[in-house]
Amino acid sequence: MKFSNIVNASLIYATFRSATPIIYAALCAAITQQANILNIGTEGIMLVGAFTAVTVSYLTGSWVLAIVISMLAGMVIAWIMAIGHIKYQAEICAIGMGINMFALAITKFLLNSILGKSGSFTDPSIVGIPRVHIPFLENIPVLNQIFNDWCITEWLVIVLVIVVTFLFYKTVWGLRLRAVGKFELAAQTAGINVNAMKYQAILISGLIGGLAGAHLSLGYSKLFTEGMTNSRGFMGVAAMYFGGAHPVFTALGCLIFGFADSIGARVQAYGVPSQFVLLMPYVITVVVLAISMISKKSAEQKKKSSLTGGN
Q1: Does residue 299 carry a pLDDT above 80?
Q2: pTM of the model as a whole
């Protein structure tokens, strides 16, 4: 096993490629978390988006329409969550888990009834999301390996991280959203429509979750497989906790998962047991959650200590 065959310039892109669907999922969770809503249903929203994107692309031959419809499908699933949680005061975690199970069942049913397949579906008629080729990078080997032939939605996720960060911390809407998440009663007293902000947060997260699924099935791959999200939604939630729901720090947390996945795929070629490779993302998830929880508890202790004057 040569170290240079595992860790090289191409690993940078491989890490980002693996992390991209998780970044989308993490942004989906971060938006609702700013309103103090834990979006466990990210996994289900992604799965519905992934199936919708493949189906629409296969039937229409348009990847753009596929992305738009998958985002709308994600918003519909998020709307169901919003109604249950906000209008009927149901526990958000219970709704989220219900959404995840519903997504597994409905996509399996529709795969069989609409596409006539079971397990997975792929076809040459599926139009994937195009990749961006930059000709002048061909003469710069390292940059060519890292930055050339990125999928459009891989470039888009960087833009989205910047946009969401701006919305959170530089706009009135973001200030109101964070106010609702920090102290709901105070926000309501200040004249903010708390329920409206929560609806907006959940519905926007549904749009991004649908986009995450579309990227997974048309950008990251060009097929649909039952349960193909493979816990990426939960990894996104873990990364969101790691980054404190800040889009930039959350995205950096997602790169940890992408790096682990990329390294695992490479070492498997050198005889490392596949069971160990498959276990790595889940171990990383537990480690990331543990670190984020310890950091949060430490910050709370320091804040408490400063308020009491160190006594």
Answers
A1: no
A2: 0.91
